[in-house]
Amino acid sequence: MSGNDPSIPLASIPPQRSLSIQRPTRGRATLAPGLITPSRGTSATRTVDERSELKPAHYASAVREYAHLPNCIGDNYIWLARFLKSDETASTHVSPNPPGDRSPNPAPLVVQYLLGCNDDPSSPQHNPTRNLSTTSIQPLGPGEPTPATERTSADERRNRHEVKPSIPFNTPAEFFSRGTGEGFNGAQSSVVFLCGYLPGAWINHVGARYIIDPEFFCRHLDFRSPDETPKNFSIPALPSCSSFLIELPVMTIGIDKTNKGFYGKTIEITRREAEAALDTHRHRLAISDMADGESLIRDFYVFDDTHFAVEQRISICMEKSKDERSFQLLVWLDSTERLHDSGDSTSPSSSSPSSLSSPSLRSSFPGFHQKTQTYPWVIKQPSSDNRYLPVILHKHKIALKAHLLSQGILSPSARSAAHLPNDYGRSLHAAIMSQDAFYCLTEIFNFASSSQMEFLNLIDLKLDLYTSLPPEKDFEVLPNLKYSKKILYRYIQKTERVLESIRNATNKESRWPRPIDQTEKARVTAQNIERDFEHLLKRAQTLHSRTTEAIAVLMSSISIFESQKAIQQAEDMARLTSLAFLFVPLSFATSLFGMNFKELDDKKLSIWLWGLVSAISLLIAILAYCLFPYVERLRNRVKVLVVRWWKSIVA
Q1: pLDDT in tens, 141-178
Q2: How far apart are CA 67 and CA 76, in angstroms?
Q3: Residues spanned by the domain of 509
Q4: Is 617 within the bounds of a domain?
Q5: Can you give the pLDDT at residue 463?
Q6: pLDDT digits (tens, 9 = 90+) for 456-479
Q7: How far is Cα 417 from Cα 335, in angstroms, rounded to an integer?
Q8: Are 506 and 609 part of one and the same domain?
Q9: What is the pLDDT of residue 350?
Q10: CA distances from 465 to 69, 127, 303, 545, 608 (A)
């Protein structure tokens, strides 16, 4: 019998070790406040379930206690503790129709995909000869043979792309009760999507159900500006401290031709407005002034008057069960399909020349509906020229399978991260998903890498544009190159951390769940994902080097241009000096005859006398100018002779 068999009464089980807020270990741990521990005197009708021992309120209390430790080691959790506490006494029911949501059937806040169950091996879910798209195989224990998941039957190949079972949730109480209520299978693996902004009640319930490391929530809810000085410098942490956490940047490119203009002040003003809008968005997050399920953004990049990019994040946490026979994957998306009022006049029913301007795609980004203001990333007039570009995933021979797409047998690639929870895992083998946690994330990694590739392609194109402008535009191009270099530097840092997370999950010493004899498909998939992100890192480093070289060349060009201007100014000054050389003797003569001496009081003096004096003065000046080089050489010779004479005397 399994140690978690619900048929075993609690009275017949020896007392278990107490739970802590971290993932259970073999040693004893200190109880978090309010945790319920089993005892021998408990009624026999109560079943053993480790997740039922931690309640949502207790989860928040444990985080709050750690955040307020006197030695300040929990400073990073102060905001999270306050956020969880603010919703602790609130109703756990979250309205499925938040204010401003204009869609008749709003997308759920949480979607769960069940992967496998291992309490009943005879269950149809564990029959490898059945349809792999709707069933799963239990994770393998030590010594168990690996099923031949590669050798699928004709029926399996035909039904591989059927929709996998998913459970939508709109209330945290409903989500938590499914984990602790009757019929819950504690050994069942799953992928749980969290969509958009979630209040503290949701985090308490999700964290308590799976005993999630609060670091996962703390990092995802960190919306500080990259330029802001932190209270401490513990983040980013070492890779070994984040072996079960992954943070994936997701980029979305937008085109907006309504704001005409070219380089110079216009683009600088737009970027300053974007920074101000980001500060406003972060302030709303800090004070929890967000609608449930509203989309979030991490950064906003303005490249010129036409193209911009929005950065969002996908945070992933893998949590294994206590007996390590199952796992839970939490995937928190910044984007959501819920359409909130963004200050534009476009409604879901409005027609658009392009399906890419649909409300479901525009809802991936938050709008600022206070009064008539809107965020700069909100496209006010969606059209074929003004729209968000979809993320296009290249798949082998996909262009020959249009009939499968039209019939619904294949699902089109997600156009934005908000579409990932829809029919997730359709392109993956369900049997492998139930055994290999990293393989379950394949579609998420492929989407993130494709979006980042499009982002780098855009930067490459803009660098071509910046470096091809005429020299007179150099002063306007330089700020754009510096802006691109800053973006690439931050992107390189994030990609390096993603690669470390991938290696943490796929190396031989990894603690991520996978079968003892890993299938070839899972191994190749992991290698492809790592190779894709290595390519992204190399591409970003190449672009960063190119930007640095372009800035150096541009600075040299500007220096040469400034030198040429200085030479031109020197030539102009030489001309002015020549004119001054002519007028100085004349001014001397005029000043001489303007003196009040009695010798000059004779009113019969002729102007020719002034002309004669001026001519003599000019002649003397010219003679002095011509003799000046000879006088200078003579002075130098005399100086050398004096120095030699003095040295001879001293010697």
Answers
A1: 444 444 444 444 444 554 455 556 789 998 898 898 87
A2: 7
A3: 90-142+155-228+236-560
A4: yes
A5: 95
A6: 999 999 999 998 888 778 888 999
A7: 6
A8: no
A9: 35
A10: 54, 58, 11, 17, 68
Residue 540 has pLDDT above 60, yes or no: yes
Question: Beta partners for 191?
Answer: 113, 329
Using alpha carbons, list the distances in angstroms from residue 440 to 323, 416, 425, 429, 643: 20, 19, 7, 9, 88
Q: Is position 169 within any domain?
A: yes
pLDDT, mean of residues 270-291: 88
Tokens describing residue 309: 């990019």
Q: How confident is the model at residue 412 (pLDDT cuts 50, 70, 90)?
A: low
Distance of CA 72 to the CA centre of its chain: 28
Radius of gyration in angstroms for the set of CA atoms belonging to the chain, rounded to a whole number:
37
Rounded CA separation 533/444 (Å): 13
Does residue 243 belong to any structural domain of this protein?
A: yes
Using DSSP's 3-state secondary structure scheme, residue 492 falls into helix
Q: Report the C-alpha gap between 290 and 279 in whole angstroms.
A: 14
- 105: tokens are 């059937």
pTM (2 d.p.)? 0.74
The verdict on residue 8 lying in a domain is no
Q: Residues 555, 600: one domain?
A: no
Q: What residue type is assigned to position 601 of the chain?
A: D
The span from the CA of 167 to the CA of 349, in Å, is 28
- Show the beta-strand stretches assigned E in 461-602: none
Q: Count how many domains the chain has.
A: 2
